[in-house]
Each structure stands twice: as C-alpha cells, then as structure tokens.
Design brief:
Blueprint: H1 2-13, E1 38-50, E2 66-77, E3 80-91, E4 95-108, E5 118-128, E6 137-149, E7 152-165, E8 173-184, E9 189-198, E10 212-221, E11 227-236, E12 244-255, E13 272-273, E14 281-282
Antiparallel strand pairs: 1-2, 1-12, 2-3, 3-4, 4-5, 5-6, 6-7, 7-8, 8-9, 9-10, 10-11, 11-12, 13-14
Length: 286
C-alpha cells in the first residue's frame, strides 16, 4: 500500500492542474478524507453582493448571482475518497441554470504513517458552460497540508490549475494558493480567517490588479459528528476580484455500504474523523 500511494503522489505532482474554485466552491480543504462506508453531502451557497455588472467575453455578470453547488463525496478506504460536484447559478434576469460538473478523487497519507502534519492530494477535473466561464474544461492538482496545534488550526492548499479549452490555455499552469487559520473559541465554535488567491502562471505572476485576492472572516460550528457548517464574508481587494461575497457550507454525513474495491486498496480501519477546525469526532450512524 505504501508503494502504491507513493506512485500516486509522484504521478500527480508531475501533472498540471484547473482554474480555481471561482464562486461555486469556496473552501480551504483539510487533509482528512471521508471515512470508508460514509457519504458526505454538502451544499455550498455563495451570493455575490458586489461583483461584475456587465457581460465580458460572453460570460454573464455575477452581480447578485446565487451560486449553489451540491457536493457528494464517497469514502472508499481510510486514505481514498471521490467527490462529485453539480454547479448551479441563479441571477437577476438569468433564471436558474446548470453551470457544469466536476469530479475529484483524493488520496491522503494514512494516520498509521504518523506524519507530523496531515497531507492529502486531490485532482479535480470538469466542465463549466461558456456563459459562466470562458475556460470550459479545466484540471486542478491541489496539495493539502494541515495541522492542529492546541486550539489553533492551520491549512494550506497551494493549488496548480490548467485550462484545456479557452483563452487561458496559452498561459499554461496557474497558481492559486489558499490558506485557513482557525481558533477554537469553544468546543463547538471556531473563528477563522481564509485567504484565496489566483496569481497567474507559475513562471510569471500577473500584475497585482489582474490577480484575484479574497479574504474571508469565517465561523465554523460543530452541530455534531455527522454535520459540517461554515459561514464567511469575503472581501476582494483587486480589480479582477468580486468585491463582496457571502458564503455558507452545510454538510451531512451518511452511512452506506462501502462499494467493493480490490483487496489491495484496503488497509487498517480509521474510526476517527477530524473535520477542519480541529474538533475530533467519531462518526455515528445516521
């Protein structure tokens, strides 16, 4: 199993990665994966209070758009999961529309390896309609590193992104880092700060005014071991970034029968699930 995981990491690290989460899935990932036999269903609701007001290159304006994304993630082993996204949008005079879909397999370093930090790696590929994104087909490689230090939680996602159809193809691989800092105010509430950036090609960043730079004060609430809740208000500080966004994530874990995988995929069970924010919980039955 160790050798298989090493091969996966090396292969993915040599790949090039998507254009960022945009305003559909605004989240800094923690390293944990959904436990085997569990399914996580999340709803990402993001409302652009102040954004772009005119159509640009055929892309609809996002001022006062509500973006809702359904994310369904299945845990297969204690180190492998796969997520599937359905993106939707509703805007003034635009109606309710399907935007696109992404799929995201992810592997992690198992707890049995006893690394000093949590480490996982996701690969996300998918399609968005040209009226919502000029780059329609894209791929992302997202390394994920996190650590709980007492009441403090830190996570870093230095994502690499690559467009395969659209005007950004010629730019090659883009760099979109994100970061989360959280502090457990109580056993149930974590105050946080999240940063999201998209700075341009890895071998030549864009001018600052063309970069995307957003900062989100956030709150994470623990409603029980099977729930996830995150609320934040984002402020954009460059011309290329939406100026004000409100985001909310609500998720629920369910227990289903684990799909059969070849024996080589299985390893020792990992009963403890640690959601981002650092509060450890043993997932109960739904």
């Amino acid at each position: 199993m160790h050798s298989f995981f090493t091969v996966v990491l090396l292969a993915a690290s040599c790949s090039v990665g998507v254009f960022a989460q945009g305003n559909y899935e605004i989240q800094v990932y923690g390293s944990d994966t959904v436990p085997p036999g569990r399914t996580m269903v999340e709803l990402h609701s993001n409302f652009t209070v102040s954004g772009f007001k005119s159509t640009e290159a055929g892309v609809l304006p996002d001022q006062h758009q509500l973006h809702e994304t359904v994310e369904i993630t299945q845990g297969f082993t204690d180190w492998f999961e796969t997520g599937f996204y359905i993106f939707t949008s509703a805007g003034p005079g635009q109606g309710y529309k399907w935007v696109g879909d992404h799929i995201r397999p992810r592997v992690r370093v198992p707890e049995s390896w006893h690394w000093p930090v949590g480490v996982s790696l996701s690969s996300e590929i998918g399609y968005q309609r040209p009226i919502f994104s000029s780059d329609t087909w894209s791929w992302e490689i997202r390394p994920i590193i996190d650590k709980q230090i007492g009441p403090w939680y830190l996570a870093f996602n230095p994502a690499l992104e690559r467009s395969f159809h659209g005007p950004s193809v010629s730019e090659g691989v883009g760099f979109s880092p994100s970061f989360k800092l959280g502090y457990n105010l109580t056993r149930k509430i974590t105050a946080g700060f999240e940063y999201y950036g998209s700075v341009g090609p890895v071998f030549g960043f864009d001018a600052f005014r063309k970069e995307q730079q957003q900062f989100f004060p956030t709150i994470d609430c623990d409603f029980g071991p099977n729930w996830e809740f995150n609320l934040g208000v984002g402020i954009g500080v460059t011309q290329s970034t939406d100026h004000l966004i409100v985001k909310m994530i609500i998720g629920r874990r369910f227990r289903f029968v684990t799909p059969h995988l070849p024996r080589a995929f299985h390893s020792a069970p990992s009963p403890i699930y640690s959601p981002p924010g650092g509060v450890q919980a043993i997932g109960g039955d739904s």
